[in-house]
Design brief:
This protein has 342 residues and is of the alpha/beta class. Helix content is 48%, strand content 15%. Strands 3-2-1-4-7-6-8-5 form an eight-stranded mixed sheet, sandwiched between helices.
């Protein structure tokens, strides 16, 4: 009997999919208890052929072809055909640990749990990738202190199928990989469902390896966050995943940049503004100290690039959020996923 359905959306994933599927077919639980559903999101490469070849030996494996609509729509398509009572999600560029399924579903022994979030790890040597891992670890430290959360990322996630379908699944207004997973978890938490963090449910991932990759990703998160905040404005204040200091850093960087520009172009005010300029940059650096001390204990080499990466994070998130607010203010409010019909 199939108890669990693992859903993997993929778009042009020939390069990354083999590791993901190899890991999923070698899980610690009996293969008869879970199915693997790969949803091809309109790939133009050999993704489907690769998936079919790699899954041929698994007793319950399916490849679904869908028109290109983004990961939210692809995951919903997989959930529609799933036979398991629990839906598990990971991404094509993730490599789940051998006990990933076992660790995630153990949380459902508590009948009150509806959603579960796992954790990232990486084997990369790049300093940028190692900073990204430390950034996630900082957030995991925060979540481990909470008995219930409101933030689940789909790189390592599980939901009870009935609750997922009742909520309407992922909101397909998010047409690219962005914050569609955050939006669903915010919605489920608002309905009173209990979501929990399981740090032992690990998937290995190829994090951003260059500053520009990191900046682009943060920009995209900020951009689509503007749409999310139209439906969940309270999350601009607090959620269980995002440290409050990130918001302070975004504000301080905006002040520092603004004062720097004024200092250059408004000559008469230059002397008066120097104090503001120095003060804003010093305050920004002061907000970094707790995370820098953590990194110094865990991965000392990363400390040397961490201040610059934190500035890039604030810059990408801030610019993305600003431009997203401008764009999404010009369109009518999107239909919620809970109003959609598969």
């Amino acid at each position: 009997m199939i108890e669990y359905s693992v859903i993997v959306p993929v778009y042009n994933g020939v390069r990354v999919l083999p590791r993901c599927l190899a890991a999923l077919t070698q899980q610690s639980i009996d293969a008869a208890r879970y199915e693997i559903i790969v949803v091809d999101d309109g790939s133009a490469d050999e993704t489907v052929a690769v998936a079919e070849r790699l899954l041929v030996a698994h007793p319950h494996a399916h490849v679904i072809r869908a028109a290109h609509g983004g990961p939210a729509a692809a995951r919903n398509a997989g959930a529609q055909t799933a036979a398991g009572g629990v839906l598990l999600f990971t991404d094509a560029d993730c490599e789940p640990a051998p006990d990933w399924i076992e660790s995630l579903v153990r949380a459902f022994d508590d009948a009150g749990v509806v959603g579960v979030k796992g954790a990232y790890r990486t084997r990369q040597a790049s300093l940028v990738a190692r900073f990204v891992q430390q950034e996630y670890q900082d957030k995991y430290d925060r979540m481990m202190r909470q008995s219930r959360i409101d933030f689940i990322d789909t790189y390592s996630a599980a939901y009870r199928r009935d609750a997922f379908l009742a909520a309407g699944g992922f909101d397909t207004a998010y047409t690219t990989a962005s914050v569609e997973d955050q939006e669903l978890s915010f919605r489920l938490a608002a309905q009173g469902h209990r979501l929990v963090f399981v740090p032992d449910a690990i998937v290995y991932h190829q994090h951003d390896s260059t500053p520009m990759e990191y900046l682009r990703r943060k920009y995209g998160i900020g951009y689509w966050k503007a749409l999310l905040l139209r439906s969940h404005p309270d999350k601009a204040v607090r959620d269980s995943h995002t440290p409050q200091v990130i918001k302070a850093q975004m504000g301080l960087l905006a002040v520092a940049i603004s004062v720097s520009v004024l200092t250059v172009f408004v000559r008469g005010l230059a002397g008066w503004l120097v104090g503001w300029l120095v003060g804003s940059w010093l305050l920004l650096f002061a907000t970094m100290l707790p995370m820098l001390l953590k990194i110094a204990r865990r991965d000392p080499a990363v400390v040397w690039i961490a201040p610059g990466m934190i500035v890039l994070r604030a810059l990408g998130l801030g610019i993305g959020l600003l431009l997203g607010m401008i764009r999404f203010s010009l369109r009518s409010a999107p239909a919620r996923a809970s109003d959609a019909r598969y």
